[in-house]
Amino acid sequence: MTTRDGILKASLVVLVASVAITLLPRSPHLVSLQRDQQQLEKVLRRMEELVPSSSSSSSSPSSSSSSSSSARTVEEEGRIASMKRNDDEDDEEERIPKLLHFTWKTDDLSAIPKHFRDFHLRWKEVNPTWDAKIWTDDDILVLVERHYPKWLRIMKRKLLAPVVKADIFRYMLMDRFGGVYADMDMEPIKPMEELIRTLGYPTCILGQEPREHALLLEEQEVLVCNAVLVSVPGHPLWQEVLESIYLRMTTGWMKYHPNPNPVELTGPKKLTQVLEATNEKLSGACELLEPDVFYPLADNSASLDKRCISLLKRMDHQGRGDSERARKVANACGRVLRALEKQIQRAKGLQVEPEYPDATYAVHHWTHTWISRHKKELQSHV
């Protein structure tokens, strides 16, 4: 199926959903979805003008991703691992330890929001032979004082955003202890040991955010997420990341950027930048996996439909509507459209069971506890 055919099919889905919505009480949520739907219909019309059907078939969502980066699917990695790791089966020293790391204000499960608590307990069910620990704010300062003393003054700053501290600390956990770090809104699907074994016991595993995030939000090909980190202790990537952040925070940059974007300062954009600059040089390079492994869902709160409109209008104005990038954006917007259709079904009260790819080992639910507008919703789960 060509990109254009896929877009037209998705457009039909949205139009059918639109008719259904008009028969329902116009709740504020449905009205909002209907507005989003109208915006996406405009995007579809724009796509039909911009993306020639004769050339779009070369760029399907599944095939284009691996060619734009060094990422491989789990199946590809497994085949490679079976060829190159046979002699290392008894080498336990470089194995990823069976440790699960989480961070929260408290380790009292009764005080943790219910959906986070359920995910945490599920991690232990899916990985029964692994040790799990929730690191608290007090734990963070103790570990920093003992093992990363030069960071103590920074980590004690009251004005430093908690999400920045959390990002820094997860890199420290990987550097010091290794294992698996996971955000509290990560839902486990399959055992981590199975993934590690399939990949041939690598020393570091990272996953990409959905292609929609990279292309539509950051306008780049690849965005490495830090909601799940898998590593042996002492992997050189973590010192590279920590040193890059430390230099930025201690050389005057913060004076001119008092409210930096955490995504750029310590989060996914920083991790992507350091990985791209150093991964080929590192001893034991990280395995960078496709989005389906850890991040099969896009962030519904990220206004991706509006980004579709903005990007396509700009491409049209610049005369780049038939470019390879336009085709990739078209594919990404098609996925946004399908996700919106599921939101509409849920708003109508229909049961929509999540459908995850076979390659999925965990699912990030994009709760954004560090963004103020999400805090009221979070409190309702306590």
From TrEMBL:
Keyword Transferase belongs to the record: yes
Amino acid composition bias (Low complexity), ranges on this chain:
52-70
Q: Where is the composition biased (Basic and acidic residues)?
A: 73-87
Q: Name one GO cellular component term.
A: membrane
Entry keywords, A to Z = Transferase
Q: Does the keyword Cell membrane apply?
A: no
Q: Which GO terms describe its biological process?
A: mannosyl-inositol phosphorylceramide biosynthetic process
User: What is the name of the protein in this document?
Assistant: Glycosyltransferase
Q: Which GO terms describe its molecular function?
A: mannosyltransferase activity
Where is region (Disordered) located? 45-92
